[in-house]
Amino acid sequence: MCHGITCSTNNLPIVGEGSFDCAPNTNISIGEACALTCNEGFYLAYSSQAVCEEEMTNQGGLWSDGSFVCHAIKCFTNNLPTVSEGSFDCAPNSNVSMGEACTLTCNNESYPVYSSQAVCEAGIPNQGGVWSNGTFVCRRLNCSEWNEWNGSEYKLISTSQTWEESRQLCESNSSHLVTIENKEENIFVRKMVWLCYQFRWTWIGLNDRTTEGIWKWSDGTVSTYRNWGVGGASGGHADDCVAMFGEDRQ
Ligand SMILES: [Ca+2]
């Protein structure tokens, strides 16, 4: 009786966090291979294929030698970019898992102009993780000029006037009272108000002047981001316009 030389896929090595692409309980012919794929968040450290080879002594098939290991994708914090006037909040000499992030904090009077988070991402195949692309720059706030942040310009105007006067003043400067879209923008605006306008109030674009209790931004933007102070929105018809207080919090 003739017997074709094959390898059983049931004899493939067992790899933690990975699997071979051949069906179980199957015989593979000499010269054919099964490829190892690692689970999400893991990468192939060494061999990627098990080949069915002829085993001379007993004329059977044998899987090729290989080191089949799936390693967790991690990024080394010492490979984070160096930022003058700032630092990332992850410990040095440590590894961060895929999907985790380190946040750039800028020194006292400066702020992150563009990106503020470096995220650990899958690198080129068969290697560890890489930090996400970003432009990491800390720049000193200028309290009397426009400050660029994330593609827009912001300026604090230090005059005592009503919300409506402020709205008009912004308009005459081809701008509008600030709309805050998200937490990152809120952190930036708060830092500016805190550093340039300590313990005073400054108007922002949020108001419920049109319909009591329906808060809108003066530029018509539909941002739903809110970060009310203690007590939240109150005051009813008597209070329709929102100001931010210059204090050191987020
Ligand atoms: Ca109101």
Q: Which terms would index this structure?
A:
single chain; 250 residues; mainly beta; four-stranded antiparallel β-sheet; 2 helices; 21 strands; 10% helix; elongated; binds calcium ion
Describe, in plain words, how this protein is organized in 3D.
The protein has 250 residues and is mainly beta. The protein is built from 2 helices and 21 strands. The chain has a 4-stranded antiparallel β-sheet with strand order 2-4-6-7, with no helix packed on it. The protein has a 4-stranded antiparallel β-sheet with strand order 10-12-14-15, with no helix packed on it. It starts with 5 loop residues before the first strand and ends in a 5-residue tail after the last strand. The model has no long low-confidence stretch (mean pLDDT 92). Bound molecules: calcium ion.
Count every beta strand, where a strand is a DSSP E run of 2 or more residues: 21
Structural class: mainly beta
Order of helices and strands: EEEEEEEEEEEEEEEEEEHHEEE
Taking all residues together, what is the mean pLDDT?
92
Largest sheet: 4 strands, antiparallel
Outline = elongated
Please describe the topology of this protein.
Layout: E1 6-8, E2 18-20, E3 27-29, E4 33-38, E5 42-44, E6 49-55, E7 60-63, E8 70-72, E9 74-76, E10 86-88, E11 95-97, E12 101-106, E13 110-112, E14 117-122, E15 129-131, E16 138-140, E17 147-149, E18 152-154, H1 163-172, H2 183-196, E19 201-207, E20 216-217, E21 241-245
Antiparallel strand pairs: 1-3, 2-4, 4-6, 5-8, 6-7, 9-11, 10-12, 12-14, 13-16, 14-15, 17-18, 19-20, 19-21
